[in-house]
Specification:
single chain, 530 residues, mainly beta, seven-stranded parallel sheet, 5 helices, globular, disordered N terminus
């Protein structure tokens, strides 16, 4: 068993004394092919962006702080540190217990635990936004059904994440999600959307100009919406793979208004290009629950593998699913023997969630042609830090498409049991993901997946692989965007025409996410909960 707990950030090898920027690396130099199943099709000439930073390096350090290069249009590596509970760098709260569930005496405990959750859910919120915690005693809680948390301010807490402490066990051979947090929601526009008038707003920017700012003021929660158009799809070579029926929606807060210019609290992780699409800004409502925690326990899904339809439905055998939820967390949790499509699934409507000190062990899949996802990030400003995976055929750390970012995997490791696995964006323009100090036996792929999986296409954009340790890795350059590979080790695969810096030699600092937090005056959350 891999021990839960944050490892030291110290490396066993040296750091680059000088930083080199490599652009346009040729296949002849690289000499290795993309991982099996990755289909990088022919791409049009890169529109609207330069091939590298105007001068210097994409990243450096001066006087204890990061320095950033940018291309001719102002695109730079985004500040990913806004991912996580309460916007990153905020310690998890200690929520008082309101209901204690005694040690189970045997039989189905689903109703007992759900009744405790419902009782706490009915309590009033305190000034900090909490109702209280359900404390599970040491023991094994057999669950024939499913648990749900649908109210803000509720924490489900075990007595420890070891088999001898608190374990939730799937006790019926039916494929399901053991715990669902939140429900689905939808956007409602408030007021009149205002057009973005800038011809180009670069990746990493926090300010933009609007046709008007009437009704907008500092403190307003807004959406910056970037619709997908056929013109942009054609520009990135995804004709017939992507469809123009979705938008990137960056949820942000206005920090200042000066004339027709607004300033946002979190940088954009994708450029806004008037050449291809008309972006807008508007106030909105989007109901979510918040301040929900799951901590200090173990889950086991072994019984689901006996389901008659498991070979076809193992994707749905999952310990968790977070739907419309924000400012919440999972901490010090271990789950075993699940097959799920995202054993840890933070869905497309999740926001500012921290997953700290967790393990997904001994995943169970049966379809030889398919891979399950261990840690699956969607939504925006979500963080997985200090995690471990043991599995066979699996996407260890991945995203689905169309999320606005930033999202972060930091200080995570994946150990190969058998077969092969990989990490990286899974499909359809997952924007703004950081793979930070990630270590895996397989391949890390920031690539164009082409027609793989029915048309996954460009799976990462404006994403960064930083100081990653891999068997092999690939970093490709999407038209209209960048992908960065900095300080990564392992075999660099052919076709890696993305933005490369110090390949084969890690650079300082060890963690980009931690350093970006420090530069904002916030401390990395390393201690977690006892």
């Amino acid at each position: 068993m891999v021990e839960v707990g944050r490892r030291s950030r110290k490396r066993r090898y040296g750091y680059a004394s000088a930083v080199a920027v490599l652009a346009g690396v040729t296949a002849a130099v690289l000499g290795h092919g993309l991982a099996q199943g990755s289909t990088a099709g022919a791409r049009p000439a890169r529109p609207m962006t330069a091939s590298g930073p105007v001068s210097g390096a994409w990243l450096g350090m001066a006087h204890g702080r990061l320095t950033y290069g940018h291309d001719a249009q102002g695109n730079r590596i985004p500040d990913y540190s806004y991912a996580g509970y309460a916007g990153g760098g905020v310690a998890l709260p200690k929520v008082p217990t309101r209901v204690t569930v005694p040690a189970p005496a045997g039989g189905d405990a689903t109703a007992t635990v759900q009744t405790a959750l419902d009782k706490v859910s009915a309590l009033p919120l305190d000034k900090a936004g909490f109702r209280g915690a359900v404390q599970l005693s040491p023991g094994t809680y057999h669950l024939a059904g499913q648990l749900r948390i649908t109210a803000s301010g509720v924490v489900l807490r075990g007595s420890g994440a070891s088999p001898s402490a608190t374990t939730l066990v799937a006790d019926r051979p039916t494929v399901r999600t053991l715990l669902t947090v939140g429900t689905k929601s939808s956007y409602t526009t408030v007021g009149t959307p205002q057009r973005v008038t800038d011809a180009y707003v670069p990746t990493g920017a926090t300010s933009l100009h609007l046709a008007g700012t009437a009704g907008l003021s500092a403190g307003d929660e807004v959406v910056v919406e970037r619709p997908t158009t056929q013109a942009w799809i054609d520009a990135i070579g995804m004709h017939g793979i992507f469809t123009p029926n979705w938008s990137l929606r960056f949820e942000r807060r206005i920090t200042a208004v000066h004339g027709n210019q607004i300033t946002l609290d979190v940088p954009l992780t994708n450029a806004l290009e008037k050449q291809y699409t008309q972006s807008t800004v508007y106030r909105y409502t989007f109901p979510r629950i918040d301040h929900v925690g799951v901590e200090n326990l173990t889950e086991d899904g072994q019984a689901m593998a006996s389901a008659p339809d498991y070979a076809r439905s193992f994707y749905n055998a999952a310990p968790w699913e977070f739907q419309a939820v924000q400012d919440s967390w999972i901490s010090h949790v271990v789950w075993r023997h699940f097959g799920g499509s995202g054993q840890l699934a933070l869905g497309p409507q999740s926001r500012r969630i921290s997953v700290l000190h967790t393990q997904a062990l001994d995943m169970l899949t049966t379809d030889s042609s398919a891979r399950s996802e261990a840690y699956l990030l969607q939504g925006q400003q979500n963080l997985v830090q200090d995690c471990a995976v043991t599995a066979a055929k699996v996407h260890a750390f991945t995203t689905y498409g169309r999320q606005a970012g930033p999202n972060v995997f930091s200080d995570c490791r994946a150990t190969l049991v058998k077969d092969t696995y990989d990490a990286g964006g899974h499909q359809r323009w997952g924007s703004g993901t950081l793979y930070d100090d990630v270590r895996l036996d397989g391949s890390l792929l920031l690539v164009n997946n082409g027609t793989r999986g029915g048309g996954h296409g460009w799976s990462d954009a404006n994403s960064t692989a930083y100081n990653c340790t891999t068997r092999s890795y690939a970093v490709q350059e999407p038209p209209t965007a960048h992908n960065w590979g900095i300080g990564c080790t392992g075999t660099l695969q052919s076709g890696s025409d993305g933005q490369l810096q110090s390949p084969g030699t890690p650079i300082r600092p060890t963690s980009l996410y931690d350093q970006q937090l420090k530069d904002r005056g916030r401390a990395p959350v390393t201690a977690g909960r006892p």
